Amino acid sequence: MQINAERLWSRLMDMAQVAPTPAGGSNRQALSDDDAAGRALFEGWARDAGCSVDTDGVGNMFIRRAGTNGNAAPLMMGSHLDTQPTGGRFDGVYGVLGGLEVIETLNDLGIETEVPVEVGVWTNEEGSRFARSMMGSGVWAGVMELEEVRGITDEQGISVGQELDRLDWAGPLEFGRPVGHYLELHIEQGPILEDTATEIGVVTGVQGLRWYTIELTGFPAHAGPTPMDGRKDPSRPLAEILTTLYAMAAEHAPWARVTPAQFRSEPVSPNTVPASITFSLDLRNPDLAVLDQMEQTMRDVVASATERHGCGYSIAIDNNSPPIVFDGDCVAAVQQSVETLGFSHERMVSGAGHDACYVAKLAPTSMIFIPCADGLSHNEAESIEPDEAARGVEVLFGAAMRLLRVDVA
Amino acid sequence: MQINAERLWSRLMDMAQVAPTPAGGSNRQALSDDDAAGRALFEGWARDAGCSVDTDGVGNMFIRRAGTNGNAAPLMMGSHLDTQPTGGRFDGVYGVLGGLEVIETLNDLGIETEVPVEVGVWTNEEGSRFARSMMGSGVWAGVMELEEVRGITDEQGISVGQELDRLDWAGPLEFGRPVGHYLELHIEQGPILEDTATEIGVVTGVQGLRWYTIELTGFPAHAGPTPMDGRKDPSRPLAEILTTLYAMAAEHAPWARVTPAQFRSEPVSPNTVPASITFSLDLRNPDLAVLDQMEQTMRDVVASATERHGCGYSIAIDNNSPPIVFDGDCVAAVQQSVETLGFSHERMVSGAGHDACYVAKLAPTSMIFIPCADGLSHNEAESIEPDEAARGVEVLFGAAMRLLRVDVA
To answer: Do B263 and A274 touch (CB under 8 A)?
Structure first.
């Protein structure tokens, strides 16, 4: 093993002590004093490791180990240090400290690289205090406007801009500057690796997702005197729609995801046929053509089931995020690294969004997953084992060396 | 025709002018000044027709045309004069003014009867201002306690007891005193008679009903990373349960009623598998054995569908009202009356509750329905035609004469 597994674990545990929660998690919400304390701890380690530290206008922090060619686009690793209010100890943190561990290992091995090696700490990935997730990487990649996100406020009315100014986080680095390759190491936040006892997930892309609000409209009528045949009852098409949606998910297994949620109906009366039933629908697939096909199946069954039962409908799209296919060279570097190390692995897509989704718009990118207990995340009980953590960073190190064309075998 | 159709219609229209609504309905909520104004108008007509007027402790008003045998239990007709806040002109009112028209017709024809003939005006049938429907008849029949209902308050905190005292409505008549027969004439409040172009419904009973609150519990999980197979998603059993419930309704057609409503789910998040989905269920059938069987089918499918998908459930019973089978003599009197008159008719059960449900606990009872436009009720657009109104009262008159053993043919 080339990385220092004890140093890695010790730093993960130290970071967890910055704004710890009673149940063993962390609460470092974006742009808070706690978030700043986490960054300060990380910055100390980075400076001790000989790195320079800079930020950009939205507070993204980049630590940099210089290369022999100061003009070369860096190899970047990274993730985020902010957490959910009752967050876990590893979501985001693991990718940042894993990147630092790669730099430490380069130092330990006395390796000079031509291109600089950086670790990015993206601002407000969680989007819980300020409701725009992956904000820092979004602005960096040009998907969001700096002025717009500076205006976003938390529940107390404090804006992102106020906090960036107060914490003096806005620095001179340019958004979207050239990056040679970007690698993000992360816990899976799902149960697939654990369920199949697989050590490493080679992440080839990110699910496309679409969110809909579907309203089925009927005609309110008295539950007693109104015969069943004369009703326009939106519960009837609802049953057919749900049945078809789950059959569709099975048809496109294993990656299709179908999640109806947020059910509500009007009027709130036990003896009136509902005038309307509304629910949200989250559809995901890594293949755009399949995602399109899933949407069409959904639209077809909503139209036909409501028509069959004399009901009406509306479908609104609330979110449309296309699938992301990661860079072939980056994925290959991870694949070769894990094969060389001999860890069990499988190729998979990420079901959740990550900063890598936005970085991938400008730079060759891929991700590495490790298992987490019960697939639990955004939860104080989020848990990984030290040897799982070490394996992931070893794979990251190996992939980085391949992309840096450094032979350490 | 023996009744005076013009007088009947004119009084229906006059009563509609007491607290009229802009859209053509009435707003005489129970125990309000408007309700009292409606009663005052009715009382004037009753006294002009030679009736005495009395009330009981819960404000039920009874007008009485004396019989030759003052000790005989009266034949009673009746319904209610209170309305929903945006109520129609005929719900309840038609049964009261129909009863008065029978008395007027007896006067017109110079007929003396052995037993007294009464019309009851039951207090707070609607249960909208004071949330206990069929309150007056419920207390009269001993189903509710006077002291308890006096304590029920409206949204302004005013109690039934305060209003009874303020309006001086509480009188000396005893609850549950002997009644020979009770006949309630009512608009159908459903579309069956209109749909089949039938003039009169001979009501043989009232649907039994049960209200349940059903909660399906799953396990909240991220809509992206969580594979479909590993989910405990309550939307899956929901689809199966709804499908089975509607098949059950079809199996027990035409009288079985199945109404799921009041859907809600937690958490309110578009990308989390729901932790729970809750809905209400209203089951109705005129046959107790079939209603029991429907409940069992529901319990079986809730248990099996949730188990099949790894979910849990709970079922609470919120209301359990057994079917009511009306008195054979009363139903026969209505049937003979309508046959003699030659109106088209069908035997049917009432899907909604009426004061007759409680009166039937103590006295031989039945009901007569006439069509209403589009089955619409509890709605300002509630509508009937003058000739429909007249036919119903003619049937009521004929049935009453049969029960009074008066030969007017």
So the answer is: yes
| Strands laid side by side in the A276-285 sheet | A312-321, A208-217, A276-285, A257-266, B257-266, B276-285, B208-217, B312-321
CB A235 within 8 A of CB A274: yes
Say yes or no to pLDDT of A409 above 80.
Answer: no
The shortest C-alpha distance from B14 to chain A (Å) reads: 28
Chain center to CA of B93:
13
What string of H, E and C letters represents the secondary structure of B201-238?
EEEEEECEEEEEEEEEECCCCECCCCCHHHCCCCHHHH
**Structure confidence by residue, pLDDT tens digits, A87-99:** 999 999 999 999 9
pTM of the model: 0.88
Place of tokens 């993206």: A122
d(CA A138, CA A122): 9
- Six-digit token pair at A140? 């960096």
pLDDT in tens, B255-303: 999 999 999 999 988 889 999 999 999 999 999 999 999 999 999 999 9
Q: Does B249 touch chain A (CB under 8 A)?
A: yes
Contacts of A226 in chain B (CB under 8 A): 190-191, 257, 351, 375
Average of pLDDT values for B336-343?
A: 98
Interface predicted TM-score (ipTM) of this complex, two decimals: 0.87
CB A59 within 8 A of CB A170: yes
What are chain A's domains?
5-206+323-403 (3.40.630.10), 208-321 (3.30.70.360)
Mean pLDDT of B331-341: 98
Query: Tokens for B157?
Result: 């905190």
Give residues with Cβ within 8 angstroms of B171, minimum separation 6: B54, B55, B56, B57, B59
DSSP letter (8 states) at residue A128: S
CA separation, residue A183 to residues A326, A368, B28, B384 (Å): 10, 8, 72, 74
